[in-house]
Design a protein that fits this description.
2 domains, binds magnesium ion, 12 strands, 21% strand, globular, nine-stranded mixed beta sheet, alpha/beta, TIM Barrel, three-stranded antiparallel beta sheet, Enolase-like, domain 1, 14 helices
Length: 378
């Protein structure tokens, strides 16, 4: 038991840290080449001395997110009990009377994760136990990703992951379709039949192109086809599901359960991939995963281009959700994964595709706030 009674604790400050850094190696998808990455870390302080940390996905203008958190959300939080997470989530959502949009939900995500970190520290339990717990000491992960490039480049990429012992690997696909189809076959031959392979198109295709790529995936025994179409084209996903035998995966572009509900409830998707730092934090991502479980859809946490806080929050969710398939494991670690805690990133700690689940209270990580200060945006 913790020495702190939750009824005695109050939030005294909320600080948003906008971080931006150059990636050690560019990420190349159908969108192009990413050379920089940004996030916002959220620090929630309490009068009990407990500090919670969260992460908001903030792919652009991280300082704008920080201002939103400190000017619009902080006044709704200071003086409140941080363990009243559902009430605080609703209060933050009511900062805007219209549809929430992405930036507000991403900002709330960062605060929500920090509140769960505090709740865990108050209770003296890791978050995965607060979520109910599935008794998992490790969660299955997949390597992300083989970047898009020439045949030889993609060969070298998959060899790297095979050498690291990953039994599941994701491959980026793009246009032209004939190149994608050829590489799908080529990489299957190179990996062998024992390795589980999937692809991510980052919305590269029209419906007809996706049907053609889907045939190559089915012929070569890939286990999912991720974001073939733009996320708003729900009717397109439904038609593709009827014409493509490979299971469909999506969800990293969704904000809240509302945006995932249609394609999960009619089982167009076989895998739902919310990002905890985008979808609404641990509270909302849990609802999404549980809604998916009720429809026999599997949960596969997205963490691409995130920091260690998003990765760790995702491990807790992955450990606690009954319908987990596998969690994304980003192999090119930015300083947000390597430099702000004592813990190594998941890609360096996984063994044979299994990542240990943290055992300490809350998220179970210690933040080096001096390092965070060094990574702040200029
Ligand atoms: Mg993706």
């Amino acid at each position: 038991m913790s020495e702190y009674a939750s009824s005695d604790i109050r939030i005294v400050d909320v600080i948003a840290h906008p971080l931006s850094q150059t990636l050690p190696r560019p990420t190349v998808t159908s969108w192009g080449k990413y050379t920089e990455v940004s996030i916002v870390l959220v620090e929630v302080r309490t009068d009990a001395g407990i500090v919670g940390v969260g992460e908001a996905l903030a792919r652009f203008s991280p300082k704008a997110y920080a201002e939103l958190i400190e000017t619009s959300l902080k006044p709704r939080l200071v003086g409140q009990n941080p363990t009243d997470i559902a009430a605080l989530w609703r209060s933050m959502r009511r900062a805007l009377s219209g549809r929430a949009g992405g930036v507000l939900i991403e900002a709330i995500s960062g605060v929500d994760i920090a509140l769960w970190d505090i709740l865990g520290k108050v209770a003296g339990l890791p978050i995965h136990r607060l979520l109910g717990g599935m008794g998992r000491s490790h969660v299955p992960v997949y390597a992300a990703s083989v970047n898009w490039g020439t045949d030889e480049f993609m060969d070298s990429e998959i060899d790297r992951y095979l050498e690291k012992g990953f039994p599941r690997i994701k491959i980026k696909v793009a246009n032209p379709v004939k190149d994608a189809c050829r590489r799908i076959e080529r990489l299957r031959k190179r990996a062998g039949e024992a390795i589980e392979l999937c692809v991510d198109a980052n919305w590269a295709y029209s419906l007809e192109e996706a049907v053609e790529v889907g045939r190559a995936l089915t012929d070569n025994n890939y286990f999912w086809f991720e974001e073939p179409l733009r996320p708003e084209d729900e009717a397109g996903y439904e038609e593709l599901h009827r014409r493509c035998a490979t299971p469909l995966a999506a969800g990293e572009s969704n904000y809240t359960l509302d945006q995932a509900m249609r394609l999960v409830s009619n089982r167009t998707l076989s895998y739902l991939q919310p990002d905890v730092a985008r979808a609404g934090g641990i509270s909302e991502t849990r609802r999404m995963a549980e809604f998916a479980a009720a429809h026999d859809v599997q949960y596969a946490p997205h963490i691409g281009m995130s920091g260690i806080v998003c990765e760790t929050a995702s491990v807790h969710l992955a450990a606690a959700m009954p319908n987990l398939r596998a969690m994304e494991c980003e192999t090119d670690s930015s300083p947000f994964k390597t430099a702000i805690t004592g813990a190594a990133p998941g890609a360096d700690r996984q063994k044979d595709g299994l990542l240990p689940v943290p055992t300490g209270p809350g998220l179970g990580i210690e933040i080096d706030w001096d390092a965070v200060a060094r990574l702040r945006c200029a």
